[in-house]
Amino acid sequence: RIGTAALAVQVVGSNWPKPHYTLLVTGLCRFQILQLLKEKPYPVAEVQQLDRLEQFTNGHKSEEELGELSEQFYKYAVQLVEMLDMSVPAVAKLRRLLDNLPREALPDILTSIIRTTNQEKLQILDAVRLEERFKMTIPLLVRQIEGLKLLQKTRKSKQDDDKRVVAIRPNRRISHGSITEDEEEEEDHDDVVMLEKKIRTSSMSEQALKVCLKEIKRLKKMPQSMPEYALTRNYLELMVELPWNKSTKDRLEIRAARIVLDNDHYAMEKLKKRVLEYLAVRQLKNNLKGPILCFVGPPGVGKTSVGRSIAKTLGREFHRIALGGVCDQSDIRGHRRTYVGSMPGRIINGLKTVGVNNPVFLLDEVDKLAKSLQGDPAAALLEVLDPEQNHSFTDHYLNVAFDLSQVLFIATANTTATIPPALLDRMEVIQVPGYTQEEKIEIAHRHLIPKQLELHGLTPQQIQIPQVTTLGIITRYTREAGVRALDRKLGAICRAVAVKVAEGQHKEAKPDRAEVGEGEDCKEHVTEDAKQESISDTADLALPPEMPILIDFHALKDILGPPMYDMEVSERLNQPGVAIGLAWTPLGGEIMFVEASRMDGEGQLTLTGQLGDVMKESAHLAISWLRSNAKRYQLTNASGSFDLLDNTDIHLHFPAGAVTKDGPSAGVTIVTCLASLFSGRLVCSDVAMTGEITLRGLVLPVGGIKDKVLAAHRAGLKRIILPQRNEKDLEEIAAHVRQELTFVLATCLDEVLNAAFDGGFAVKASLEHLNSKL
Ligand code: ADP
């Protein structure tokens, strides 16, 4: 029950690939346990300090005898140290220590350095009296000296071969100061032998095997306390673990694949069709060389989950590699092993995780790779994705080639604009547009609600969400292209219901007490009088709610709070100088209210709302066109002049001021908004528009029509003004959405203005009306 109190000075090591730590401590004194106070989580005991006390209790009784003993001990110690190679700095230091340290500390220190068994060390530790300690240590020293003499005789040639501080036993290395336990050493030695065996029996490539055998040879010679030891060992363990030759068997059957895809995902016909084509070619050709699929679309439209389904249909392992924000090429390709804390890249790590060499890797968010001083990760990805090169992909950490040609890569992105062209070139882009309201309702009822019920341990008998409620959530609580927020809201509803159900189960145990109905969630109870409601607040008296709990609008409001989005856009259009534009963002389409106002001034144009250069230019174009056409349209400034900017300042604002916006497509909206401002007329409240303008008043086509139309539809708008040349894009929009909207295809601004104002926007000279073509 004697131990050493010590101060931890340093802890070094790592947890990867398995915990391996070195602890450096300074011993302070001996202590004895008087009473164990508690054992968990770590032992706490009342202790008594033993060292030094002794000197006081023993007084100077055996001073002389001790002096003799310590002198003798010192001599042996010096003899031992001088037998060692004094040119090694640590030995020289030890020699100096012998002189400088107090004699009574020497037995402890030397016992820890010389070769002793654990048993012997413990005996010295237990020897509380100094005299006893000296007496016990001297034989150990003598033994060591004899051993060393013998060793020097037999292995003279090997004497100076390495930096052993105390060469005690052939093939064993103990560096000064480290306390290496016998068993541990043996264990480690066994480990290395095991590792070597594993390397020899693993199916790694010839080149890799050669490197590994060389490394293991080095490892055997290395002292364990060297940082490189752990590094090399980690490296070798990774090499053994990598799936050099291990693969799952593909079970590709197109009919089954179609069923899996259809079962997992509603709608997205185009995407599913393309994926099936891709898989069919793979089945016929029996290899996977070909373009990498890249799904591009707003968040939450199921890009990742389609990737997962593809892995499922192929019977392959699935691994997702998130690339968002990765700005260091060593994230892809690993660090060289010379760096401290070096690691393999994500590709090799992924392979280690899945344990086979033919998984489906989903490279998520390739559009969010960034460049930095540490290199361009996109360039590193090029090698990974190129089927001609990736059979010999070399990770810097591995430093040997690994064959990636069996891996099926799928990429996802929100936009192709920020994907480096060289990378884009290697991928086949499949656009995944947002969903319509009807599709969202179907997705919610077929997939999201069952999934959420299961997640929350509910059954369909306990909760009922009618379609109108789902529609309510979609239109009033979310405004998104995908279904992720919808999924979250459904999750929130399930949580609330789970509380009710759990409370109900609790109360069923004592039903006799309950008399009064409860009903935050229940439609039936909403009309209950105030008194009952107040009682129902004291939860104890409440009855279990009737099953299934119906989620209606009242319940929605209770659970999700007041609606976040208003369907009513007309309110904002009740004064001149406001028009609705359509914008495209990587998150899908959006409607945007453009606002304009005028005031006395010197003809300046102020633009707010974080606009890019192109958008600012659009605003200038719009003003110029209106000024040059002011007479034709009878547009005047406040003082009745046709020079619109005479003594007038104009301010244009694009809301959501914190979001940067750019692009030419707001041109027609700015013109309409300003035309409304100067004519004093209101823009129709159900019209949205998009299109680029020219100085001569032509309307040019723009991108993202599909997403924009869906956004307008989501917002409940009825009429959309588009450039004539975008007519072809309308084909991709679902028929039922097209039916609910009226499209006005315009080639020039006159047509736009005519469609945007009730009763047209008359041109004074010739009252010609250009009607829509649809
Ligand atoms: P993304 O990768 O496009 O951002 P996810 O694949 O993570 O989106 O999809 C978000 C959630 O929406 C997933 O739980 C997915 O199952 C669901 N989801 C999306 N689209 C569909 C669909 N068409 N059918 C069924 N579930 C869908």
Automatic annotation (TrEMBL):
It is found in: Peroxisome matrix. One of its GO terms (cellular component) is peroxisomal matrix. The active site is at residues 665, 708. Gene3D superfamilies: 1.10.8.60, 1.20.5.5270, 3.30.230.10, LON domain-like, P-loop containing nucleotide triphosphate hydrolases. It holds the Pfam family AAA. Its EC number is 3.4.21.-. InterPro entries: AAA+_ATPase, ATPase_AAA_core, Lon_bac/euk-typ, Lon_lid, Lon_proteolytic, Lon_Prtase, Lon_prtase_N, Lon_prtase_N_sf. Its main location: other. One of its GO terms (molecular function) is ATP hydrolysis activity. Residues 510-534 are annotated as: Disordered. This is Lon protease homolog. It comes from Loxia leucoptera (White-winged crossbill).
